[in-house]
């Protein structure tokens, strides 16, 4: 893992191209509900055993990295938007939307609390993680 000396974010590739951000994760949860904070903490706890896996704050989101960015968590007013990419489109009732993004599919899941992180959601996140380490 490479640590950017300017923004202190971790990346799998040395000198990986990115936009440095001095945002702290806590700033992204300012004026957000305790439920969203607990849901984010649960995501960290659920994905922590998956290696390699680091995360850091970007300007408006938290980006999880393995060999590449695999999960983007955007704290919204009352929900967390969880986005991961695959080369195929999955179907599930838990997706808020799936969009075509330059030949990949962005899968969005919205959660409001840690109870929304059910087995299906965790299994889908794992599919996104596994795709990132191929």
Provide key terms for this protein.
Yope Regulator, Chain: A, 6-stranded antiparallel sheet, 8 strands, alpha+beta, 24% helix, single chain, globular, two-stranded antiparallel ribbon, 134 residues, 31% strand, 3 helices
Q: Mean pLDDT across all residues, rounded?
A: 92
Report the CATH topology name: Yope Regulator, Chain: A
Backbone CA Rg: 14 Å
**Total domains, how many?**
1
Instruction: Give the helix level as a range of percent.
Output: 10-25%
- In CATH terms, what is the architecture? 2-Layer Sandwich
Q: Output the strand order for the largest sheet.
A: 3-4-5-6-8-7
State the distance separating the first and last CA atoms.
17 Å
Task: Please summarize the sheet with the most strands.
Answer: 6 strands, antiparallel
CATH class label: Alpha Beta
Strand content: 25-35%
Secondary-structure class? alpha+beta
Q: Helix count, per DSSP?
A: 3
Label the overall shape.
globular
Summarize this structure briefly:
This protein has 134 residues and is of the alpha+beta class.
Task: Give a verbal description of the structure.
It is a single chain. With 134 residues, the protein is an alpha+beta fold. The chain has one domain (2-132): 2-Layer Sandwich (Yope Regulator, Chain: A), CATH 3.30.1460. 24% of the residues lie in helices and 31% in strands. It has helices at residues 25-28, 34-47, 119-132; strands at residues 2-3, 10-11, 54-57, 62-65, 69-75, 80-86, 95-101, 104-111. It has a 6-stranded antiparallel beta sheet with strand order 3-4-5-6-8-7, with helices on one face. A two-stranded antiparallel ribbon has the order 1-2. A hairpin with a 3-residue loop joins strand 4 (62-65) and strand 5. The protein is globular and about 40 Å long. The protein starts with a strand and ends with a helix. The model has no long low-confidence stretch (mean pLDDT 92).
């Amino acid at each position: 893992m490479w640590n950017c000396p300017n923004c202190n974010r971790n990346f799998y590739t040395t000198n990986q191209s990115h936009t440095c951000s001095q945002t702290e994760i806590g700033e992204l949860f300012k004026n957000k509900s305790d439920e969203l904070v607990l849901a984010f903490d649960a995501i960290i706890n659920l994905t922590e055993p998956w290696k390699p896996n680091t995360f850091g704050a970007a300007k408006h989101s938290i980006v999880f990295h393995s060999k590449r960015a695999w999960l983007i968590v955007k704290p919204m007013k009352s929900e967390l938007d969880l986005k991961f990419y695959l080369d195929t489109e999955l179907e599930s009732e838990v997706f808020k939307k799936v969009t075509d993004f330059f030949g990949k599919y962005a899968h969005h899941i919205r959660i409001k609390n840690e109870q929304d992180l059910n087995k299906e959601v965790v299994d889908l996140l794992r599919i996104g993680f596994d795709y990132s380490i191929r």
